Amino acid sequence: MISEIKPIHAAKYGMTIDVDRCNGCGACMVACAVENNVPPAHEGATDRKGLTWLRVYKVDNGEEYPNHRTAFVPVMCQHCNHDTPCVHVCPQQAVDLDPATGVVGEMPQRCLGCRYCVAACPYHARYFNWWDPAWPKGMEKTLNPDVTPRMRGVVEKCNFCHGRWHAAKQLAAAAGKLAGEPVEYTPACVEACPTGAIRFGDLNNAASEPARAAKEAESFRLLEKLGTETKVYYRSKREWVREIAQAPRPRQSGKEIARG
Amino acid sequence: MTIRGKIPFLAGTLMALGLGWVGFPYAINTRRPQPVDFSHKVHAEKGGTKCEDCHAFREDGTFAGIPTLDKCSGCHAAAMGTTVAEKNFIDQYVTPNREPQWADYARQPENVFFSHSVHVKRAGMTCESCHGPTGASDSLRPYREDRISGYPAEIWKVSGTNHGMKMADCVDCHRSKRMEQSCLDCHK
Amino acid sequence: MKTTRRDILLFAGGSAVGVLMTPAPWRLITDSALWSENWPGIPRPARGAITAKYTNCALCAAGCAVRARCVAEQPVSLVGVAGHPLSHGAMCAYGLAGHHLPYHPARVTRGPVEEAATAVAGAMARLGANERVAVLDLRPGRTASWTYRRAMAAVKNGVYVEVGDVGNSAIDLTKARTVLSLSVPLLEGWGTPGNVIAARAGFHLIQAEAVESRTAAMADQWLRIKAGSEEALGQGILLALGGQSTAAAAEATGIPEQQILALASELKQNGPALVVGGAGSQSAAQLAAQLNDALGALGRTIVARRDAPVPDGWKKAAPAVDLASVEDGSIRVLLIDESAPGAYLPWSDVEPKLVRDNPVVVALGWTREGYGRHAQYLLPTGVYPEVAEDIPRAVDSVEAVFRMAVPLVQAPQGVVKPEEWIAKAAGLEVGDTLRERADAIHKAGRGTLFTYADGKSVATKDVKTDDFWKALQAGACWMDEVEPAKRPAAVKVAAGATRQAAGSANDLPLVAMLTEAPSSPLLSKIYQESNLKLGPKQVAIHPDEARAAGVEDGARAVLETLAGRIDVEVRVDASVSRGAVLVARRAAVLDVCGAGVRAKVVRA
Are C13 and B19 a contacting pair at CB < 8 A? Predict the structure, then answer.
């Protein structure tokens, strides 16, 4: 039921991730889970059945020592701007591409759990709740009131910290800013990254850091050949990293560890 | 079919209509009085003049909702009037410093993001346009709650108005103002 | 008139039609949908006013400045304080979820407090002439450490044992141009992460390590040495610097002789150089100090550092000693403070020091995963962010610092303050030691105070005593003035958490990863739900080793060392070099991997 009306100044939120700066510390993954009320792993959860809206992959160039090189690539929902695969396949209209922000949003409460979107997503960025969310006793007190906890049987994913976007919009309204003006905010992973590898901003605003960095020669997007026009830009000086980004699944150090 | 043949059918229909329109709406809800017999009217006349004086906005634009006890005890540390309701309030809540467990007529589901700032400060809507003429009421109506879903009954119809606070009600207004974009505008 | 079956059916039919014309069925459908949205067991986050509080992270000596986002007084997320001169707004994955620790499933909140006090008092009264009362401090350099030293000076035969203190020398990464790290996790939480990241662009990093750790992956050069050959490499470089043969080192490390020579000359020519490593053993530490001396690092990249001022009244304190220097079989009463995360000595190192008949061992901690497994008494303590405590200086902070973790949430009923409990057991009267220390620092008048809420620095002299204390409690950091770099008197640079490595030809040398505990259950994101780190119960070995041991990926197995056995889960990983076992450091693992690190993985 989404209308086609566009606000006066549509934002197009996007990210740039400097792969050469990422040291794989995992701070972004933890900050993301804290912000978005993602529960700790169920006992039976593995790297394939876990909930990691943002996941840092360790990739390598496949060469033997001493030419062996490794990089860390944080991958979250890439917020495809064109022919968004998950939007197309959802039978519930639980996923939409917000024309005002460019964010691919999902309503887990609307999801019926068919996981068609999980299969459709080329970036493995969607996660299914295989178990009831459970927090150790007392830890539920630390949940973020700006994000609803999800239930078993639904799919969830990164939405560029919409809780923070809501808060920023609200603050802008209270401060008398007009409707339809893009607001500035910082997602949790960007705030948490100790090396400043992840930047976030409005790609429509030429002055923003991502708008500038996205145009750099070393900038690339994952699986560009699909034409999904994702809004998460990566950057690396290393050519092998740029090549890997076009492979269907990140190549991983020690293939056995990836369990298939 | 004879007239005689239609009587049981009509009787069944009438009974179902009666139960469905009268009995069911009554049975689906539980009802309980609010902890304190509070008069918005008296407070509007003697205390603040605007809703916002008590139902305040915080600095970050969030809405504090129902005021907490410290707001009340600022004035009601000792009785200001002679009503029984006030005496009970002071004895039961102010003196022992116990928060009254107010029931919220407009409590929304957990996954709803509703910003009072956006609607009041930016869109300039009045409180009454959604909440009805609560500010003019002399006593608090009993709180009714849906037995199955656990949501306040007034979500389906706000007392003193002809609208509810369901998603359909939000969407109607947003659509007419051409202000709907995405699910995540209002859901969290 | 008679009611027929037909009438009843008609009545029912009429009811069915009628009910469809009422709101009831539709409302029931809606209601059941709404009911299913509120699945039982899914918590509802509490709402309330959102505020910011400031503190310092007490999970390690980095003491990163923290801004806590609180909803109705309860911290719901943590983030670094931008602009902090030392931590630079950075925080690690563990620190970002530090506010979950009070709710950790392994948390203890009840313990035999009275019984322990009686047992300690009884044992101290009957103390033999050669028997000792000891405090084992796993996080030296705190104000509480001073209390322990004073307490041990006040009791008969008291001895204060410290583990992992960084001493009075500091590493100045900003001055280094070439850094050789001997398996030190330099980019993985070593020192003050923000400080390391800020200085990273200024030095060339050579990581000598058996596995490709994150530091090795991010280093400018990775030298894949044989597992456990860090000391051999260090010796080789030392010999190369002296112009002697490095053939033995090349043999031991698997690094060609020429490369060792090149490394030595690079360290020499592209100075100031720095070698970090060697906390694993005494000889390794000595070797690192020798290397740094030979490279001229002392006084340049390794400098002397003053301590934060201490009240004059505290000077009557027991000296700090190593556990190794305590006689075997001499400790009658051992009090272990493990309330704050710190180093861990394997129990196999501690146990021989106790008297044979009925020693009294009291562990004061918040989790049952540490020494509580071995002690007679485990007394519950508060944990970050419940307690007020100061944080010892980090290995890479050149100036003395004083900053506190302040309570953001209330500690549960029944927990003890280790400092007070131990002081009381020793019969020492203590006041508010943190306040006394802060006053002493203020009285000395040196340095500056950086306050987090406004991000401003003021000179200590310009702050009133009370305001100084108030600021520290509201989130602030006092920093001493920077002195001109001086050569440290004695180099005692513990390199934070290092990987331990040693080896024998037959068994697999063990290569421990950076400590995993204490961590929020949410850290499962980085080890269980992704492959970024090894999980606490996992070990990783090379496919060839796995084949030889007959274990498969994901299989349960047993890690066997000279000191014991422990159940583990195997991950087969080609990035681990042959002949090594990669484990995550935690107390239970360290207990069996303490003495002589030789381990092998066997089938369960």
Answer: no
| Cβ pair A257:C75 closer than 8 A | no
DSSP state of C577: P
Tell me the percentage of chain C whose pLDDT exceeds 70.
92
Grade residue A4 by pLDDT with cuts at 50, 70 and 90.
very low
By the CB < 8 Å criterion, does B59 face chain C? no
Tell me chain C's radius of gyration from C-alpha atoms: 29
Pair C28, C146 in one domain: no
Query: Cβ–Cβ of A70/C217 closer than 8 Å?
Result: yes
Q: Is the pLDDT of residue C585 over 80?
A: no
Contact A65 C71 (CB under 8 A): no
State the average pLDDT over residues C54-59: 95
Say if A6 falls within a structural domain.
no
The distance from CA C449 to its chain's CA centroid, rounded to whole angstroms, is: 26
Q: What residue type is assigned to position A58 of the chain?
A: K
Q: Which domain holds residue C321?
A: 113-162+308-479
Count of domains observed in chain A = 1
Report all structural domains of chain B as residue ranges with CATH numbers, in order of start. Answer: 27-33+105-188 (3.90.10)
| A117 within a domain of the structure (yes/no) | yes
Q: What letters, b where the CB count within 10 A reaches 16 and e where it falls short, cover C572-582?
A: bbbbbbebbbb
For residues C466 and C331, membership in a common domain is answered with yes
What's the confidence (pLDDT) of residue C343? 79
Q: Looking at the domain assignment, is residue C142 inside a domain? A: yes
CATH number of the structural domain spanning residue C526: 2.40.40.20
C503 pLDDT more than 60: no
Average pLDDT value for chain C: 88
Identify the closest residue of chain C to A34 by CA–CA distance. Answer: C77
The distance of B65 to chain C (nearest Cα, Å) reads 10
Same domain for C363 and C254: no
Between CA A31 and CA C481 the distance in angstroms is 34
The total domain count for chain C is: 5
β-pair type (A198-202, A13-18): antiparallel
ipTM over cut 0.95: no
Question: In angstroms, what separates the C-alpha of C14 from chain B's closest C-alpha?
Answer: 4
